Amino acid sequence: MKTKYIILIILFLVVLGAGIGLKMFFKPHADVSRAQTDFRVEAAALLSAFLDDEAAAAAKYSEKVLEIKGKLAAYSTLQDGTHLLILENEMEGISCQLDSSWAAANQPVLQELTIGRELTVKGVCKGYLMEIKVSPAVIMK
Amino acid sequence: MFKNLIIAIFLLATAGAFAQGKFISKNAYISFFSSTPMEDILGESNEAVTILNGETGEIAFQAIMTTFHFKRALMEEHFNENYMESTKFPKAKFNGKIVGFNKEMLKAPVANIQITGQLTVHGVEKTITVPATLGLENGKLTGNSKFKVVPEDYGIGIPALVRDKIGKEMEVTVKASYQPFGQ
To answer: Domain range for residue A126?
Structure first.
């Protein structure tokens, strides 16, 4: 009787372990549009933070979810279909690659993009490489 | 006065160097690929930055490690946390030169070239020579390269348990479409 219980408990633990393992293995990518925002910043302020002290800014913002308000400087589509928005300054601004599934579901928002207009982009900050890289990103309503 | 003159000359000299034919791509593509019996592992970034100096044939690449994306979130996590230690070594760099460079290479159709230089990954610098192609494709200066790297050469320890899963060598693919810059 006792051994039967022990076997049952062991079996239960094995199934539980396998379940957790599989869940971790197939864990989906985080959905940035639903992620909690860590910082709300102005594009110009974010740029000067990285230009003044890249290491300190990277430590503060890298891998964090930012809501960045700034002027749209350029909008293009890369060869692989990724939508690319650049805020403030086309050469050395804030480069935001839109989340592909968000972009597919929000075509009307993309069609209304106007160069020079202010908008707010929410995305994961990746650090600085001639420009601030933000990906994946979504446009806030 | 004399100091100002030196600064002025220095500024003029650097401005001159800056204005001479440089080419840039801020969205170059870099991928790592490893085929294993269980599944293929592919990490891709299209956020690498590269600058090609059209006067000297010097070529530089930089990529932020966390911009590499994988099919599974778990792979991405392992790549950054266990293997690349992306917080400690956030960027990979390559600084090199086109072997036997001449300016005609920038105006000719795509041809085979060799590039030699220093690749820094995971804080370890190695000199490598890789085959590549460079030239005009649809009117745009385009560079491509495909080469193999051994993660262990860069101090990237792969636990014995998963070594077979990851493969000893990784194939690196680089694609860049350049545009003139600072002219």
So the answer is: 39-139
User: Is A24 within a domain?
Assistant: yes
Same domain, A18 and A52: no
Count, residues in chain A: 141
Phi, psi (degrees; rounded to nearest 5) at B50:
-135, 140
Q: Do A95 and B74 touch (CB under 8 A)?
A: no
Same structural domain for residues A130 and A108?
Answer: yes
For residue B136, the cross-strand partners are: B109, B141
Instruction: Indicate whether A60 and A2 sit together in one domain.
Output: no
Residues of A in contact with B46 (CB under 8 A): 78, 80, 82, 97
Of residues A27, A126, A131, nearest to B67 (C-beta)? A126
For chains A and B, count residue pairs whose Cβ atoms are closer than 8 Å: 51
What CATH homologous superfamily does B19-181 map to?
Answer: Lipid/polyisoprenoid-binding, YceI-like (2.40.128.110)
Q: Could you report the per-residue pLDDT of B60-119, keeping only the tens digit for each?
A: 999 999 999 998 888 899 889 988 999 899 999 999 999 999 999 999 999 999 999 999
The string of pLDDT tens digits covering residues A54-105 is 999 999 999 999 999 999 999 999 988 999 999 999 989 999 999 999 999 9
3-state class of A74 per DSSP? strand
Domain boundaries of chain B, sorted by first residue: 19-181
Residues A53 and A122 in one domain: yes
- Cα separation, A72 vs B178, whole angstroms: 23
Mean pLDDT score of chain A: 92
CB within 8 Å: B64 and A63: no
**Is A14 in the same domain as A68?**
no
Contact call for A127 and B62, based on CB within 8 A: no
Whether this model's ipTM surpasses 0.85 comes out as: no
A121 CB contacts (<8 Å, ≥6 apart)? A67, A68, A70, A85, A87, A94, A96, A134, A137, A138, A139, A140
Q: How many domains does chain A have?
A: 2
Residue numbers in A near B26 (CB within 8 A) = 95, 130-131
Q: Tell me whether residues A80 and B72 touch, CB distance under 8 A.
A: no
Do B74 and A29 make contact, defined as CB atoms within 8 angstroms?
A: no
